């Protein structure tokens, strides 16, 4: 993104309709991001989120994960926002990028689960072997209800933990880490905003090589 950029936009659209309009703006303060839909020549209700994760004058990585009901937006591998679908994603046939930005890569990928256990109730702690190991491009989906003060997800190997993910209600945070050579790594924390105790939830863990083969993107 250019240092003097005031705004740019990414649109997923069909004919004259914008199924998803994503618009980082820098008109005030640390900036904000606008989410919207444009259908039948009418804009929908604008949704904004403050403090844009795309600093001017720096490289940026924007990922959009399409689910059955929403678009999950991430910046540099970290969740940023979620926008509910107002129009079917199946209508999208074009992508449009506009503004003072320079594009290095635009990529599309269909993320099909590699292996799915039959739906139903599972005994917790739950363990399963990952066929073929963890490779870039794999998607892991965990659905359920968090009943306790916290939940923990481990992606393990023989000698350590490649990825540790733990929503914690008592601390109002999500903790991410890894465990290698008998030592925990530098813990990453973020605000607990995606989960509510006692309500259905879904965690999507996508391993990708957009920046680094060891990056895990959680939605």
Give the key terms.
5-stranded antiparallel sheet, Jelly Rolls, mainly beta, about 220 residues, about 0% helix
Question: How does the SSE layout of this entry go?
Answer:
Elements: E1 8-14, E2 17-25, E3 32-39, E4 42-43, E5 47-50, E6 62-66, E7 70-75, E8 78-84, E9 94-99, E10 139-145, E11 153-156, E12 161-168, E13 173-180, E14 183-184, E15 188-191, E16 200-208, E17 215-218
Antiparallel strand pairs: 1-2, 1-9, 2-3, 3-4, 3-5, 6-7, 7-8, 10-16, 11-12, 12-13, 13-14, 13-15, 16-17
Structure description:
It is a single chain. With 219 residues, the chain is mostly beta strands. It folds into 2 domains: 8-99, Jelly Rolls (Sandwich); 139-218, Jelly Rolls (Sandwich). Helices cover 0% and strands 46% of the residues. It contains no helices and 17 strands. It has strands spanning 8-14, 17-25, 32-39, 42-43, 47-50, 62-66, 70-75, 78-84, 94-99, 139-145, 153-156, 161-168, 173-180, 183-184, 188-191, 200-208, 215-218. Strands 1, 2, 3, 4, 5 and 9 form a 6-stranded antiparallel beta sheet that branches.
């Amino acid at each position: 993104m250019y240092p003097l950029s005031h705004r740019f936009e990414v649109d997923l659209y069909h004919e004259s309709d914008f199924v998803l309009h994503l618009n980082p703006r820098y008109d005030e303060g640390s900036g904000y991001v606008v989410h919207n839909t444009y259908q039948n020549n009418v804009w929908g209700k604008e949704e904004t989120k403050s403090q844009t994760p795309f600093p001017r004058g720096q490289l940026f990585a924007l990922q959009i994960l399409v689910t059955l009901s929403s678009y999950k937006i991430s910046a540099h591998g970290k969740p940023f926002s979620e926008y509910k679908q107002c129009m079917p994603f199946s209508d999208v046939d074009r992508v449009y990028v506009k503004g003072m930005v320079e594009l290095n890569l635009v990529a599309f990928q269909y993320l099909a689960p590699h292996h799915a256990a039959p739906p139903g109730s599972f005994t917790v702690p739950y363990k399963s072997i990952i066929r073929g190991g963890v490779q870039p491009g794999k998607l892991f989906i965990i659905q359920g209800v968090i009943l306790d003060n916290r939940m923990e997800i481990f992606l393990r190997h023989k000698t350590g933990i490649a990825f540790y993910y733990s929503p914690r209600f008592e601390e109002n945070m999500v903790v991410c880490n890894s465990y290698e050579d008998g030592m925990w790594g530098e813990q990453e924390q973020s605000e607990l905003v995606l989960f509510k105790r006692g309500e259905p939830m879904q965690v999507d863990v996508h391993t990708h090589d957009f920046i680094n083969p060891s990056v895990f993107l959680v939605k």
